[in-house]
Design goal:
about 85% helix; mainly alpha
Length: about 260
């Protein structure tokens, strides 16, 4: 398992796309904190980019990598190696390599400019978002043999979780604005990993105070230590469920 994981990590880190991805994140992170006198504004600017760029790159790159590794996977399956070991090794290699890129590009500037709980939350949520979308990408790659269809499913999943889901929530809020729907909206927001990550960071920056009663609801539900633990627990479920489904399908798949 260690040899397969090590090979995947080395192979990914040699990829020019990952190098460019790391450099772009680093340039933006350093620029945001260098140009902003207020670290809170820098955190918000960085958060918007992280929650848009990191999921997109993670899901598309991981999905394409899995399809391009099909022959390598078939070679491994022909060896006396358990399928579970192969799949876990591929997933682990992707997670480590992509999170290394994130830590270099975003983690180092954040630790320098925001060396507190807020900075740690940004780093942890970014790593978990990366891992979540790798898990979804791995599932998409096993659901369809056709590369174009698999990539299309991955992009549509990213689009739904990043843009469409929030649009649906806003539509519901406007439609039922005469009713007390703040608590249901908070619960629905928690079901989306991107919204969950955004809420966790905003509560640390204390921007929720500008959101009125809705912000108070978010702070009451997610602002405590228990709420933070539940939030990370939900994000772990987003990692585990797609990966376990893909693992089960890979075990039973006829290659």
């Amino acid at each position: 398992m260690k040899k397969i994981t090590g090979f995947v990590i080395t192979d990914i880190l040699k990829n020019k796309i990952i190098l460019v991805y790391t450099i772009v994140l680093a340039v933006f992170s350093w620029s945001v904190f260098s140009l902003e006198d207020n670290t809170a504004k820098g955190v918000l600017s960085l958060l918007n980019v992280v929650l848009l760029t990191v999921p997109l790159v993670s899901i598309i790159f991981s999905n394409i990598y899995m399809y391009n590794s099909a022959e390598f996977v078939e070679l491994l399956v022909s060896q006396p190696i358990q399928r579970k070991t192969i799949w876990v090794s591929l997933f682990t290699g992707l997670v480590i390599a992509m999170n290394m890129a994130y830590l270099i590009g975003v983690g180092i500037p954040v630790l320098i400019f925001v060396p507190d709980m807020t900075g740690m939350i940004i780093i942890l949520t970014g790593m978990m978002i990366t891992t979540i979308f790798i898990s979804i990408a791995v599932l998409c790659s096993i659901l369809s043999r056709d590369k174009a269809r698999g990539i299309g499913i991955a992009i549509m999943t990213w689009l739904f979780l990043t843009l469409i889901y929030d649009g649906l929530l806003l539509f519901l809020m406007f439609q039922f604005s005469d009713y007390p729907i703040e608590k249901p909206m908070a619960i629905f927001s928690a079901l989306n990993p991107i919204d969950l990550a955004r809420i966790m960071v905003l509560l640390q920056v204390d921007v929720s105070a500008l959101m009125g009663y809705t912000g108070a609801i978010f702070k009451h539900i997610f602002g405590t230590s228990f709420g933070l633990s539940v939030s990370f627990g939900l994000m772990l479920l987003w990692i585990m469920i797609p990966f376990l489904i893909s693992l089960q399908k890979f075990k039973n798949k006829d290659l």
